[in-house]
Design a protein that fits this description.
279 residues, mainly alpha, Tetracycline Repressor, domain 2, Four Helix Bundle (Hemerythrin (Met), subunit A), 2 domains, 12 helices, 0% strand, binds farnesyl diphosphate, transmembrane helix, UbiA family prenyltransferase, transmembrane, membrane, UbiA_prenyltransferase
Length: 279
């Protein structure tokens, strides 16, 4: 793969972008999209993730350089700021037409999710409302996937609620490794205002609530696989919480809660797809 492409991928926040796109693809398959529908939904979600990730690094380049972020190609000077910004604008522009290949109502939801996420990049991440775009975008994501079906069914409330809780939890988990650096560069979102202990607790608590919503939300009794998912969340999330706390005390990047959150989110969706109970 050409070097430039690899650098662009690194500037896109590839871990969360792939996780969110993978979850959307599995969900699309689980709710009954045909292969073409799965492809369109996946492409629209991937484009929105790339747009948000690239424009985030484009906007944050000076702040990331000020705190010496070693994981950012823009800080290394490995890629120009103009290229990353242009890639972000291009990805944002192709998201609505891609989503429109399903139906207009679904395209509106995909666009709302994108715009809300871009508003996180600027200005909401600096305010106490920093959690809102995550909650809105992640609530809109499963609603988009369901509404994008050929007969455009109404998305179940429990699924949207699970998206909102997952998004809010992901915000706290994502900010956790950067709390100190952010404060030095003037970023004061909700997690910075409630501090590291509150942030770790919010991330783990919201993910546990997501899992419970997914297991107990659908009609009928919970499945054994659903109960197993809760058991995994109950073990993995506190382990991630503990790992992040230990890393923070050692002065290394506390990414364990973030990884635990991604793992629990993926397990939730895979179990739901296998059980065929999403809608
Ligand atoms: C469905 C959909 C579009 C969901 C996206 C929701 C959303 C608000 C995503 C933001 C992702 C992102 C680029 C975080 C980086 O934040 P940061 O600048 O705090 O972290 P960093 O230091 O790692 O760059």
């Amino acid at each position: 793969m050409p070097e430039m492409v690899l650098r662009l991928i690194r500037a896109s926040h590839p871990e969360p972008a792939l996780a969110v796109t993978g979850v959307a693809a599995l969900l699309a398959w689980g709710v009954g999209h045909r292969p073409g529908g799965v492809a369109v939904v996946t492409a629209a979600v991937l484009a929105s993730q790339l747009a948000v990730g690239w424009l985030n690094d484009w906007l944050d380049a000076d702040r990331d350089a000020a705190v010496g972020r070693t994981d950012k190609p823009l800080v290394e000077g490995a890629i120009s700021r103009r290229v990353v910004g242009a890639a972000g604008v291009l990805a944002a522009l192709v998201t609505p037409p891609l989503a429109l290949a399903t139906n207009p109502a679904a395209a509106v939801l995909a666009t709302v999710a994108l715009v809300s996420a871009l508003l996180y990049n600027w200005p909401l991440k600096f305010t106490p409302a920093s959690v809102l775009p995550y909650a809105l975008s992640f609530g809109a994501l499963p609603a988009f996937v369901v509404l994008a079906l050929p007969d455009a069914p109404a998305p179940p409330l429990w699924l949207v609620a699970a998206g909102v809780l997952l998004g809010a939890g992901a915000h706290f988990a994502n900010v956790l490794p950067d709390l100190d650096d952010d404060v030095r560069t003037g970023v004061r979102g909700l997690p910075h205002r409630i501090g590291p202990a509150g942030t770790r607790t919010a991330a783990a608590g919201l993910l546990l609530a997501t899992t419970a919503t997914l297991v107990f939300g659908p009609p009928g009794p919970p499945s054994w696989s659903g109960l197993a998912a809760i058991a995994v969340a109950v073990v993995v999330l506190p382990l991630g919480w503990y790992g992040s706390r230990t890393a923070a005390r050692r002065g290394t990047r506390p990414v364990a809660v973030f990884r635990a959150v991604l793992l629990v989110a993926l397990i939730d969706v895979v179990l739901l797809v296998i059980a065929g109970r999403v809608v």
